[in-house]
Write a structure and sequence with these properties.
278 residues; alpha/beta; five-stranded parallel β-sheet; two-stranded antiparallel sheet; 9 helices; 7 strands; 33% helix
């Protein structure tokens, strides 16, 4: 958070938790969190980022309200991630607490049926499916969580038949009733056959197995069009990217369906109203 937000003033004089930047969100109140200015520091990785000095961290409910203003027909599809670190359970709310509170907000939103719930911590996907089997879930996985059962709801990939590693990932995600597998698209990992050689994390065999099991695959974070080309050729069902404007143009060129655009004046008018609230 220090690279994104800065402190302003404490909620109350002599607040022992102040300064808040650098503290765990789980240990702060909403009132304390909403004193932070998160719009005055441009991120080094995003040099074209517009600044909005004084911007606060909104609640999920407030985000839904802002988007509903710009999207009154409720066409927007959502991909919402549970930010839980399976290695450090004391740094966030617990799985059940996290899932139940998020689901309550989902249920009261006009976008309830338009939400995909994704996580690296597969325990939250299991808990969400148990709470509401109708919610679409997406199992994130990368080179750091691949062989770590604590991330995969206790599953070990080598217990699945495969035969390839990609097929084992698909089979594991299917076991927790995930609707989507979302693997990293840009990483190379050591070959299981010859560790001196590298292979791609997301492969044709992974995508084929996902489809055989009746799921979809949406790799991340494909910000290069040569990677997008390859994923499209292999049959990926979607792409997560840091540059949606670029990938949107590419998708239209491929004849793929793309998200609608909204009138800029309406969007900025809604943004202004939203900024005044938070």
């Amino acid at each position: 958070m220090p690279e994104k937000c800065r402190d302003t003033n404490p909620v109350v004089p002599n607040d022992p938790m102040f300064p808040y930047v650098g503290k765990l969100v789980a240990n702060l109140t909403l009132a304390q969190i909403q004193t932070l200015d998160c719009g005055s520091q441009r991120q080094a990785k995003y040099p074209q980022q517009l600044l909005y000095p004084g911007a606060r961290i909104p609640t999920l409910k407030e985000v839904f309200e802002f988007v509903s203003c710009a999207d009154p027909s409720h066409w927007v599809l959502w991909n919402i991630e549970s930010k839980i670190d399976a290695r450090f359970p004391n740094r966030t709310a617990g799985v059940q607490d996290f899932v139940q509170k998020q689901h309550s907000i989902f249920r009261d939103s006009p976008y309830y049926r338009s939400i995909t719930y994704q996580s690296f911590d597969w325990r939250t996907l299991v808990a969400m499916k148990e709470l509401d089997p109708t919610i679409t879930t997406s199992a994130l996985i990368d080179e750091d969580t691949l062989f770590a059962p604590e991330w995969l709801a206790g599953l070990q990939l080598d217990s699945f038949p495969g035969p390839s590693l990609g097929e084992q990932m698909a089979q594991a995600a299917h076991t927790i009733k995930a609707d989507i597998l979302s693997p990293t698209a840009t990483v190379l990992i050591p070959s299981p056959e010859d560790p001196s050689e590298s292979v791609k994390f997301t492969t044709q065999s992974l995508i084929d197995e996902v489809h055989r099991l009746g799921m979809q695959v949406k790799p991340w974070t494909a910000s290069r069009l040569d990677i997008a080309d390859e994923l499209h050729l292999w049959g990926a069902d979607g792409i997560i990217t840091d540059y949606p404007n670029v990938v949107r143009r590419w998708a239209k060129q491929q004849g793929l369906s793309v998200a609608p655009k909204f009138p800029k004046q309406r969007v900025f008018s809604c943004l202004e109203k939203h900024m005044q609230k938070v």
